[in-house]
């Protein structure tokens, strides 16, 4: 489900280190004008990630989806050296992976293989990055697949409410853009236009390379250096982070014929790299537990109420429910937030959540791929890949006051969106709040 990816993303950007990652001393070096971060390992799995920074900052709203199409085309349209089937067959013979993907913050081009196969797979990886073909026939197939996927998502309420929330909360900002694109925009994209776009962002100024593998420094320098030799430097690029603060509650709705109603709220959160980020990550996990208990267990208002911290370039806290009684939900939500802001979390809650948080982190970061993703996210979003090696200690040091203060600071006015039966919701309760003296809003 959508939430699991976001929770994992926050985990990767929020608490990224473990004894697994500290097997040997991680280091960085500049190779041909690009930062290369290396985490040595003792296993035979090689994971290499080439990052193109920027994400939705790289293109206008009129071209949403163009970077996602480019990333898919790198391996789905063949290269100048071989067609798509030959490329795929070469990977399949050694059970290796080479593919690209994108999100709102950056794109990733991955290589994953066994060490004995590295010399066979590396040339394929270099071809995909530096010699993509953008074959018209294959591009048309990839584009149609992307359009079909978008149409399926439009029919899924969970996806639809997320995209509606983004379009309202981030209106006029880069984060309003959907990296997957839209049907009208994708329908007009050509392979030539997409190739030109890809070449414009494939610059050393935007690149970062992360290597998690048992490879010596000289080998990494030689191979990565050769790959980068033909890539242009590009104009200086700065990855932008934007604060998100809601100054008054708002409510936007869309009438839809659904079995239930969908509500989502977006409010502020601390930027990556700031002192409150870790404390707020823990606070939102505790709030998520309380939110679930109050909404589902105690009041039976939603089957799967969710809340999470999305810690990207525009960091926000989000809550989401599907419910037949939206007016009762907002009353429960208001009461819960007011209680936490007034009384705070308990010392036991914070202590237990820190342990749970770190245990989950250890488990998730056992693979080379997860470790590479962790390093990349911390470098791009926090400007500090070494955070991957210090986060466990940082989280352990968090105090009850820090966690409570972070929640009080950032949870406040909210952008509310709603899809469903508009006759069943009272916008005033979402805009003005429900906590008024002498009034029981649940009964109104």
UniProtKB/TrEMBL annotation:
Limits of the Peptidase M16 C-terminal domain: 188-354
Cited InterPro entries: Metalloenz_LuxS/M16, MPP/UQCRC_Complex, Peptidase_M16_C
Alphabetized GO MF terms: metal ion binding
Signal peptide span: 1-22
Source taxon at top rank: Bacteria
Gene3D superfamilies noted in UniProt: Metalloenzyme, LuxS/M16 peptidase-like
Pfam families named in the record: Peptidase_M16_C
Annotated SUPFAM superfamilies: LuxS/MPP-like metallohydrolase (SSF63411)
Xref: PANTHER family: METALLOPROTEASE
Name of protein: Peptidase M16 C-terminal domain-containing protein
Organism name: Mucilaginibacter hurinus
